[in-house]
Design brief:
mainly alpha, two-stranded antiparallel ribbon, 12 helices, 1% strand, 310 residues, globular
């Protein structure tokens, strides 16, 4: 058996375990709902509030994992259905995007104010898996959400806000969006960026070349998911984001958005990838808890447009 075949075999073993991930995460999710209800009822987090004399914290700046847990919970549910049925659950991904969007606005606002508070950049303060929030916004054809989420990376990536792992897939997602929909001026902050050719070729009309790029992306994701934690591909070692080919899907979605042809692409680790793309825009979905939370933070002065101008 070749090394590549062994890696795929290990990946497929891990893939079967994904069926149990939502059940294992349920208690974390339920406990977090209690924490969010505390905020909704009282207007503050349960923890002792942080204090900064230079620039006092707003109540909603003090969330740590409370917004991220529902993102992960819904994505785990979507991942389970993909492994089980071969279909991307647009409902679960839509719920995940609603929380992810809010989280990115919070992260941008907090990171911008960090320098005033502490006289330094908020280096490695943004979770590496946050790049997948940008990918799902593109895949669901939500251009406003994608552009607002990209604001976090457009400003923060060159300032090293993102806690990069040894993977270059996160860098690719950021730079790919910039090449297709951004200023087209961003550059990688990592030496020897592995996917410069894919970024340069994102709009190629050579479908054989595109298929080769998609295959490499999917091969690399399989290898990184199967790798031990010591390899430091840590956006892929917590259960989430492992078994959906988000980077490959984002590339296909960006091309479709710009009217470019796509191949009917399949991969042994993910099945038919092209068929996972939605046929029409999928609106983000708010559950009742998020609706109540948004109502509460807006009474405290939160406004996403203002926060993104910080």
């Amino acid at each position: 058996m070749t090394d590549k075949a062994k890696t795929l075999e290990k990946f497929n073993r891990e893939r079967k375990r994904a069926l149990k991930y939502p059940e294992k995460y349920q208690r974390v999710y339920e406990d977090n709902k209690t924490d969010l209800m505390h905020y909704i009822d009282r207007g503050c987090v349960k923890r002792e509030p942080a204090v900064n004399d230079r620039l006092p914290f707003l109540p909603w700046e003090l969330f740590i994992s409370e917004i991220k847990i529902p993102i992960d919970y819904y994505e785990l549910q979507a991942q389970k259905l993909l492994v089980q049925d071969g279909q991307l659950s647009l409902t679960y991904v839509g719920h995940s995007l609603s929380y992810a969007y809010l989280d990115c606005v919070f992260e941008y606002f907090k990171s911008q104010r960090f320098v005033t508070r502490f006289d330094r950049e908020r280096e490695r303060g943004v979770s590496p898996d946050s790049v997948f929030y940008l990918a799902i916004a593109v895949i669901l054809q939500q251009s406003k959400h994608a552009c607002h989420i990209f604001r976090l990376f457009e400003v923060g990536y060159p300032r090293h806000w993102v806690n990069r792992s040894k993977s270059h897939i996160g860098d690719l997602i950021i730079l790919l969006f910039d090449a297709a929909n951004g200023s087209k001026s961003m550059t990688p902050i990592v030496d020897g960026f592995a996917y410069a050719d894919i970024v340069a070729d994102w709009n190629t009309e050579d479908l054989d070349l595109l298929t080769a790029h998609l295959t490499r992306l999917c091969d690399d994701q399989v290898a990184q998911v199967a790798a031990p934690p010591s390899k430091c591909f840590f956006e892929f070692d917590n259960g989430n984001w492992q078994f959906t080919p988000y980077a490959a899907l984002m590339l296909l979605a960006l091309r479709a958005q710009h009217g470019l042809p796509n191949p009917d692409f399949s991969h042994p680790g993910f099945g038919n990838v092209t068929h996972l793309l939605p046929d029409a825009p999928v609106a983000p979905l708010e559950d009742e808890l998020l609706s109540q939370l948004l109502t509460r933070i807006r009474t405290q002065g939160f406004d996403e447009e203002t926060a993104l101008q910080a």
